[in-house]
Each structure stands twice: as structure tokens, then as C-alpha cells.
Amino acid sequence: MNDYLEFDGKIIMNADPVEKKTPTPGRIPESTQIDRDILYQPDLLIEPEKSNGTFNSSGDVQFYPSFVYNTNIPDVDIEINPINDVVIHTPTVCYPTITDAKEYTQLVSPGNCYHLVLDRYFTVNLPTSGYHSSLKGYGERDYAKYIKSREVKFPFEVYMCDGDDYTYYDADTWITLHQDSTKFYLPIWVNETAAVGIDFRARAINCDANDGLEMEEVCANADNSNYVAVDTKNAEVSGRLYNLNMYDYSDYPFWLDVFRKPKSLELKRFAYHVGFNNQNGEKVRSAFTLPTVDGSHPYMRNLGVLKPGYTSRMSLITIGNIYHGTDYIKIYPTFYYVSKKGNVNGSDITKLEEVDLYYNGTINGKYRNVVKVGSDLDKQNVKKMMLGNPYTGVTDEEFNQKAKIAGLKPKDIRSTTYDVYTYGEITIPSRMSTYIGMDCAPDEVIPDGVDPDRVTKSKQKWYFEYSLPSDVHAVKKGFDVTKYAHENGGIDYKEGFWKKDGYIVVNFEIVTFEAGFKNIQGDGDTGMGWMEGAEIFDKESETPIPHLTYTNRQNVDYGYCSMYKMEDQPLRKIDWHKAQFAFRYGDVLMYSLDGSAKKDYRSYGTH
What we know:
Number of helices: 9
Structural class: mainly beta
Largest sheet: 10 strands, antiparallel
Distance between the termini: 144 Å
Strand content: 25-35%
Radius of gyration: 40 Å
Number of strands: 38
């Protein structure tokens, strides 16, 4: 019988009794080198709350006998030295972008920044991916698992959009973004402003536990003492100028039923618009656009071209801060001649010929001959307009809203007459505008804390009239009519240089002038500012400055908005006589050189 010996679970000597000879004892296994990963443990988790920093490491290796027999062998403890420190660097990145509303921006002088437009949607993009640093394992990648939250802060009010759901946020509120791209809406009552900063931040998962909210770094926390990646994007906010239309034309009775209800001055709310689209480029109509040509009349197909001497009543809409007493809109007409045969022959297009206009008429009580449109004398021939004129067609609701906000009586607004136009220039004063922004919110609910009057006055409707003189004559632009008259004993309009047998096309360049635009950051209006002017602004900003433009010729080639183009003004038309015309953006009215109010009255008497 042997002694019993077991080693590492294996029997080396068996102590069972035997009759003759005991088994030969086995061999104790030779020791082997441990596997290289025996001291390695993968996927160790660092708690999300653990702070960034460098942490010392320590370790030792312990050896002890597998068994001890009749002796005393001590354990062996060997310290591991050197051993590397552990660095915790929880990454976060912040690389935001904003969809640029450049194609909707009508600013005369746009800034070099992002552009946001009132009453428009825009998208903020803040992904979790991007470049962090050149550290091993970092670089360009997605860091979503290390980022706790992404946020944006606007210096103005916004709505965050989720399908048909809208959440309103006051200015300077940190808004949590739950996805890479988030849609927002810019309400009409936000103040227009030059470039302001929109702030973004992305917090690492260990930020809050370590009071790291103020420990910021631009774009990425390459320094592990920081917990927040931040960035700022500059954007300017601008308003809108749109919906130019002709809603009445005074050549009655031929046009009376087109615009007004039978046996009434009440308007049908029918109008000829610039184009087929609305201000957002969405198609909303298929006919009845400006300029009207013969065939544009909905009932009398041989009518459409306008006649000098009759008044076109027109309106347009603005959105923004253009509600102060000194604000106004300027319209600059330019004049072109085109033959009755049109200017399109197959693929050939003859450019419209720019002309100067002359007329005879009474100015300041004195009859004048050969007055040039745009001359100093013509500038004295001012046409007045009264907002309360029943032909103007302003609704009672518009009068009441403006009176309430301006602190006046509706009758005071109705009955006052204002200068509006000469033949060479139209100036629409703020007194000829109304406030139509009632309940203008994406969900039609004005948020708590927002002044409803501020909302209402932030959308304006402007009324104006225009006509050409009844006795109008056209000549090639730049031709010196005065010199000719001196050399030939006067003018009788039978001279060969006058344009005959054709049309005058009137092109409108429209520009808003807004007082104190650079300083508009507060609510701004004093209530009585409607009558008293812009005394709320600093002296240097009281003079209105050009702000928005309809045509935007100077910027459209750089991707900015021409509202004529956005509204899809048709640039080709065929009239009832089969003549084809090629127009330019801004060609709004077309007048016959053959007909006029003067000739109608001479032929038919008054009507």
C-alpha cells in the first residue's frame, strides 16, 4: 500500500491496499508559462459618472504553494513596476449647421452669415459624429455613446416642430435636441436683426456628475479637463415682402364686375397677382397674373391692356418690424415700349426699349405742357389717397385692429388723406398700411407671455394706387425733348420720334425702408409711434434705411430671393390678337398708347 498523493486534482500515488505490488507513482507535471492573457480582463466598465483625469495604477503578482508537506514555505508577493497610469477622457463633439434660407432672403444688404426668414421653417443639424483629436482611438468617428445631451439656444423665440406638434420656446432657452436634425419655425413677431449668435453645446455623459457644465471647449473637448463641446453660428433674421397684386381697376363699367359684387362697392376679393406661386414658391393659381394683356379680362376676352388715366388699386404684404410711423415702401417705376405685334418672333426676342414719358396736365392749379415723368415739376404732381375711401376696400377688422394698437379711433385712420404717388415714384407711408397678423402662429394659438398686439402688427398689408397720365407720350430714353422744342418752336406730339401703335410696360422695383433697423432688439413700438415716428430710436437711426427688396437684382445672381421669381411671374404671354410678349421680372402693368381715359370721356362722356 502506497501513501496517498494528489496534485492539482490528479492522483499521483494511490493509497489503496494491493496484494503483491503497489502501482508505480505518477509524475508531478512540469510547470508551464502562464498564458499571456491570464492577467488580462477585457471590457472593464468605467462608471459614466467618473471624472476625466489621470489616475495612478498599482498591481502585484502573488505566488503560493499548491500544497505543503511537513514544511513551511511562505507566499511570494511581487510588485509590478513599472505600470502605466489610467487616463479617463470621455469625448464629446459639437459640429452644428443650420439650413440657410438664402433663397428666401430679400435683404438689400445681406450679411456674410446664415440667413433666417420670418414665417419660415428651418432645420438645425447637430450630429454626434465629427473630429475629436489625434489621440489614439479618437479622431473622426461617432461619439454618440459618450454624449449625454445636445442642445441649442436661440436669442429669439422659436417653435420646435415634430410632425404636426409644435413646442414654443422663449428666447435664450436651452433646447434639448433628440436627433441629429431638428425642424424649427420662426414666428412672425420675432424682431428682425443683423447677425446674432446661435449657441450649441454637447455634454459628455460624465459632465453633470462632475459639475462640468462651465468647462467648455470649441468643437471638441480635446483637453480632458473639459466636459462640454460648444460652437456658435451667426445668423441674421429678416422679414418678407410679397403678394403684390392688383385688386381693382377703375375703368368702369368694363372692369366693375370683375372686382366688385353686383350693384355694390364691396370687393369680390378677386385679384391679378404677380405669378402662379405664393411667397414660398408653392403653386396656388393657374391664371390671372400681371401684367394684364388683351385676353386677360375674365369676361371680355378682347380686353386686358390698361389705359392711361385710369387707376389701378394694388396691395402687398410685409412681415417684420415695418410698423413704425416713419417706415414706408418705395416703388420705382421704369418704362419700356413694345410694339402691338409683340417682341417674340419664333425664337427671336426683341428687347423691350426703355423710354421716357411726357404728358400735359394740371399741376398745382396750372396747366402744364410737356412735363417729363420724374422731373422736378412732375414730383409736385402728387396724387393723394385715403385709406377709408370705400373704393380702397379696407375691411372693418383691419381698421379696428390698427386703431386699437395705435391708440386711435377708427374714424381717424379712415378719414385722413396722404400723399402716395407721382407718375415717377410711389411712396406708401405707414399710414396706408394695416395690421393683419391676428392669431398668426403655426398652431393658431398665441403662446402665454406673447403680446397679441405684437403678433398682429408684425404682419402688414399696404395699399396704394397708380396710374399713368391720361395724355401720355413715350420717347426713346435719353432723347432731349427740351432741346428739340427750343430748336423747333415747341412740341405738338405729332413729331416722328414719339412712339405710336404700341404699349408702355411699367416695371416695379419695390424696396422697404425701415427706421432703426440696426437697433431693433426690443419690442420697439410706443403705441403712438404710428403717428409720432421713430422717437424710440437713437438719433442716428431715425432715418429709415433700405431693407427688403422685391426684385433683388443686385443679389439674385448670388442665390438670394427675387420675389417675382419666387412667385413664378410668367415671362411669356400671348394676347387675344396672338401677339407674343417676353417680359422681365418686375414688369407689372401694361398700358395702351392708343386708348386713354381722356379719349373715353371725349367719346362717351362720363361713366
